[in-house]
Structure formats: structure tokens, C-alpha cells
Known about the structure:
By secondary structure, the protein is mostly beta strands. It has 4 helices and 25 strands. The strands form 6 sheets. Strands 1-3-9-8-7 form a 5-stranded mixed beta sheet. It is elongated, with a radius of gyration of 27 Å.
Amino acid sequence: MFVENDAHLQNARYPLLNNKRQQLRVTVRLAAKDAAGNVATIPKSDLDQIRLIDYNTSALIDYNDNFSGDWTSSWHHRGFIWDRGFLDSIRSLRLEQPQLFETSDSSADDADYADDPDAKVSEPIEPTSESFGPVLISPSMDATLADCPGGYQCVTFYVSTGARAARRLAARITNGDGTVFRSNYSDVTDDLGEGDKRGRFNSSFEVEPVSFPSLPNENFGDRKADGSGYLRDTLVASNKFSWGEYRAFEQHVNIRMPNGRKVPIKSVTSHPSGADGAIGGEMMWASRGPVTRSKTTFTYISYPGETHVRMQEPPNWYGSDGYFYRVHSLLATAFPNFTPRIFHPRAGEVVIGHFLTDQNHQFYYRAQNGAEHQVPNKMMMPLHVMDIYGTEHRLRVGLVSTHNYLMLNKV
């Protein structure tokens, strides 16, 4: 049995995040001989019967693509990265700062958010499936066998865990006549993988579950240096006309370990829900601001590395002097050539855009061929992100009471 790119046959120990998403690649390498001692090809029907087992009890490790158990094996890779150096740094961090791994109250402090009677608070979405996750990478059995060196036949598994205790795993295969071969015979001392010549083998590996630390708020997003805790805003576009001023800022949401190492964001997992998308939508908006330059505001977003603007409905219209206009056209007013875009995209980071104007507008939603109705201010939104190692981070973004800055807290 070979794990990742390691050449050890047994007794090796491998860290693995216990988020049920990160996977450890395990290759079972086999060779067979017939009764005359000649090399024989193991039929695919037998290879299909290979399973991982507990080294001590021979209990089968759950095999499915639902990734729901504490221990799961699959032929499918989910696209999350296994990086031993990063995992070792987490193990070191646990020794240096054990408080980051203690269970604590995850409720966020809302004191810095606006106390607005019109605010519409979006509750965090509880995902009902992993349909928004990475696409399963499903190599065919033929492709798997073709990658096997030296005339061997190989089957590759991907192991994930949600457990806390370490576990040693081995392999089992049942051939066509029902004979079972296992690699968890502890009395077999052969290190070449040939076993005791009587069908008993000893090859295994140990998985050490690793928990991602509970990082403080300040480790998420670029923050202003004034101690306010607000996200650092960068002015990217502005236009001033005789009737008003229009500005657009960008803020970056990222994840930083205590040593400063950034953990790249792979995807955004919070999505709109409900008939009009108001709950969980990736947008906030507010009118009647108390500060002259931020009477009306709303946000937009882009996912890691993107340069185009994402806006969610509602609202899809705004009102001015009794007339209704598309909200996207209001955003365009702040940009050169009236073309909104992301000025500072970053790989592995989310950009939140923030539009501000000194003009008083009201926000509306209008369904197709329907009447418009005013929508109340929405001062918060969930922002759940998945990093490249498969850990989901549940965050919440909020407008401050003056509308001109953004806060970012863990949920």
C-alpha cells in the first residue's frame, strides 16, 4: 500500500484534516501468480472487490461518494489539496497556541453592526447538499491500471475523515472463488510486499486526523490599520457630476494563519435562497444614510480571481424622483466609461465591492411583468467560503451604521 508519493509499505503516519472533504490518496498495488508460478492478470471483477479495512479489527471502511461517515473511502477525488507541509504546520500550531483548538462559543458579536429598524438580517444558510462543491474527478479503472508501474495492477482510493482519533488502515481483496486476502497480519514481517507466501500480508498506514484551528476575526480579510476592525477599503472608481457623487471601493476577504501564511479560498458556498433571493443573497443595500457622502449604498462581489461583477437580486430597481432605473446602471455611474469591473482581483481571495453615493434613493424589486415593491435595508449577509484544503469558513459581512465601511465576523 502506498500513500500519496511515499514509497513506504507500512507503519507510516499521515495527517489529514478531519473536515470530511480533504482526501488522502492511497494506492493498493497487486501482483498475482497462477498455480504454475506465472504472472497472472487479476480480473477487473476481482479488483472491484478491493476495500480498505481497519488494521486491528478488519472492519470495512465505508465506501461511498456521500462522504458522510467519520471514515470514508472512494475512487473519486473531490479536488481538495493534501499538503503535508501545511498539515505539519497546523500540528505545530496546536502545540504553540492550544487555545485556537478549544471549543468556544461561535456566536458573533453584533455590536458593531448597524442598529437599523429597517435592516433585513440574512440568517446563515444551512447547506442541504454538497451540490455546490467541486466536481468529482472520476478516473476509469483502465486509466488507474495504466498508471501502475512494474507490471503491477493498482487500485487507488481516496480517504476522508471526520474523526478525532487516529486509525490504522489496511486492504482486503476477495477473489472470484471467495478467497479473502488481507494486509493486516501483524506477525508477517516481510517488507517487500510479498507476504508469507501463503496469502497473508502486512502492509498498512495510519491516518492522524487534524483539526483546523478556530482563527480569530482579525485573521479573515484585510483590515484597516486604525484599530476599528473594519475591512480596509480601496477607492477604485469615482465620478462627480453637478447633481451628485458616485464612488466604488473594493475590500478583500482572505484567510491568514497566525504565522501569516494565506490559505487560498477555493469557492463561495453561501448562495441565495427563497423566491426572490433576499435571504442569503450575496449583496447588501441601504438607504437614508446619516452621512452626507453615503446616503445610498450597496455591495457587489467577485469570486477568487474573477474580474467581473456579481450582483444578486433583489433589489433590481432603484427609485429617483418618481422614476425607476436598473440598480446595475446606478453602479455603472461610478466607473470610467460606465463599465463596472473588479480592479484588484486576487487568486484565492474574494473581493467585495462597495458602492456609495450622496444621493437619496430607495430600492425596489420588480418581478417580470409585475409591480415594483420597495425592499427594506439589508445590513448583513452570510459569506461562507471553502478553502483549497476543504475547510468551510462561515463568515458574516455587515454595513456599519454610517453605511461607509464593512465589518467581517465569524458566525
